[in-house]
Design brief:
Layout lengths: L8 E3 L2 E3 L2 E3 L9 H9 L3 E5 L3 H9 L3 H8 L16 H17 L6 E7 L7 H14 L4 E5 L6 H4 L10 E6 L2 H10 L9 E5 L5 E2 L11 H14 L6 E4 L5 H9 L4 E4 L13 H9 L5 E4 L8 E4 L6 E2 L19 H12 L7 E2 L5 H6 L30 H10 L5 E2 L5 E2 L1
Parallel strand pairs: 3-4, 3-11, 4-5, 5-6, 6-7, 7-8, 8-10, 10-11
Antiparallel strand pairs: 1-2, 9-13, 12-13, 14-15, 16-17
Helix pairs in contact: 2-4, 4-5
Amino acid sequence: MKRVDDFRLKFGQKEYVPIMVGGMGVDISTAELALETARLGGIGHISDAMVNDVSDRRFDTSFVKDKTRQYKFNIDNADKSGIKFDLGVLAEATRRHVGATMEAKKGDGLIFVNCMEKLTMNGPRETLQVRMASAMDAGIDGITLSAGLHLGSFALIADHPRFRDVKLGIIVSSVRALQLFLRKNARLNRLPDFVIVEGPLAGGHLGFGMDWEQYDLATIMAEVIKYVMDEQLGIPVIAAGGIFTGSDAVQYLEMGSAAVQVATRFTVATECGLPEEVKQDYFKANEDDIEVNTISPTGYPMRMLKSSPAIGSGIRPGCESYGYLLDGNGNCAYITAYNRELALHPDGKNLVVMDKTCLCTHMRNFKCWTCGHYTYRLKDTSSRNADGSYQMLSAEHIFKDYQFSVDHQIALPTGTVTL
């Protein structure tokens, strides 16, 4: 009976444990989580979502406070088009976060940064270019392009001296999305180094519509693997979304997946950035506590716990401090929804906005509890303490359980095994 450890992910002449831990923002995939993954021989992700705020937390900088002070005059203004990110500050925050992580790296694994195209930041091209280039400047091993088609993203960094050195990959949810990406970037003569195929059971934003239940990861994987083989592209294809046990992973590795990307089980790792009380909510969740909704201003459906405080919250848009989802014209779907409700309730008290949420503020405050479909199974991966809470797990424990388990068994922190 095969284990994940019987396989290896190959990049050129180098081999890695074929386990990639996904890039969960905002700082849910912490540097500590990524570093542990790399130390164990796999690939860890940090996220550059709201990197200015992450820098403030990690290094006691004052980027968010300074931006808030600069645009304080605009707080009550519905027009957010004048709120811009200082590209120099954005570059510094990225270099701090990435650079400190890379300096601390040990082991034979790699550390990638997850870059979401939908973080448009009222300057979609300029801000994305700075984020990617600064991460490369700071020594990142690879960049995973997510939350968007990224049709022009390679071109933004084509002149960077590390463009053909850094591992560059793309997340897709269909073979058509991959074909479109490759066609748009053909003139650069630079194939992606890996492709992550994310299925409909993943956490957070989904690359599907609200008909996500009509799709399944195995079918999409088979289509992408066949296309890559038929075209003799030689690109490693990595399965993601709903891979809960080592045996789940082996099933994809045996069908030709070069590795698996996993995240849900690491949300309750001690190294994960979620607050301890939120991790307990994840442990205690049942299947009917999880929903896919459309409250994200990005336009993508998003999977989360129904009890997320972000749902229905009518807080004032926090664009002066954050504004990561402002499009190139300074618009955001939450601002539109908020102003609609404010017009109906001019006193502004106890506003309820059900159709969208201020994702920046709520993700920053860990109140938008995004999760994978199998979050309700987390309780089966741990043991309960005397007070009824669940025991936290180390990233090493979870990683090695994926790496060495068989028969869909899950190793409990006590050393016992359950099905």
